[in-house]
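Dear colleague,

As promised, here are the two records you asked about, laid out in our usual form so they can be pasted straight into your sheet.

NAME FIELD: protein one
SEQUENCE, THEN STRUCTURE:
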Amino acid sequence: MIAETNPVIRIKNVSKSFKTVRAVNNISIDIHEGQFVALLGPNGAGKTTLVEMIEGIQKPDDGEIWIEEKHWKNHAEELHRIIGLSLQETRYIDKLNVNETLKLFAGFYELGQERVDEIIRLVGLEDKKNPMWLIFPADNGKGWPWALRCLTIRKS
């Protein structure tokens, strides 16, 4: 059972339309620390639109979204630094090497080359940072997707 605490993510009466299509219709949900949530539905049901609104990529037409009790309207810069993103479309990454890919994702969080180098060292990819990532096994127990996730580790 989830403790009675403030939700990590609060979505209240959120709606979003595109021309004549209502993609998200008056959704409300509280997500507490430790909860896992799955958005299920057919194509066009509004799953991606809802996630993009939570991420701050799109703005709701109606309703409010808070993350850690912060609203995108007044705290966008701070929320961009703390939220982790996994891009839906990543076909362009096959044109980048490991170092370039990590620099791209580090840029989303205003992290520099120093942090990229730290992550490359942490996952043992020093000898693979310049070759294209597709030419070495991505799942070697240390894989580069894990390195991408590490970029969002906040230091206290």
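NAME FIELD: protein two
SEQUENCE, THEN STRUCTURE:
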Amino acid sequence: MITEPTPAATGTRSFALPTVKPVAALRWSIAVCYLWFGTLKAVPGLSPAEDLAGRTVELLTFGLVQGQLAVVVLALFEVMIGIMLLFALRTRFALLLMLGHMVCTLTPVILLPDLVFTHVPYGLTIVGQYIVKNLVFMCGAWLVLRSEGTTA
């Protein structure tokens, strides 16, 4: 177990930090990102991922949900997940929805490689970088999911 040195041992002054559990802070940070990104998608022209999101949803639904409707549906879905995570409403279910969503966000690597790569498989466009960062979200969600029901 790693412990931090006491202020007396280091000769420094200490101040009280809020006692927020790291897993709760991680859950909140994921929630804020989901709320923010979802809200951006809800306003046409505001999200840099709008075209990517619309094209991906259209492909994944075999054309049943298209264009701006696809983006708005995705925006509502992301905002819903964000609210659920922020207020710990059915957190486990929200995290499972999120992980499913994250898997879908990786599909453009296969379905839309022209948007993802400048040089396949290593040269990423800004859209590709946007997708790859989702690996961090997935690991964070997995960590929060694993800690559900524990005192972590």
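A couple of things worth noting about protein two: DSSP finds nine helices and two strands in the chain. Strands lie at 117-119, 123-124.

Best,
R.
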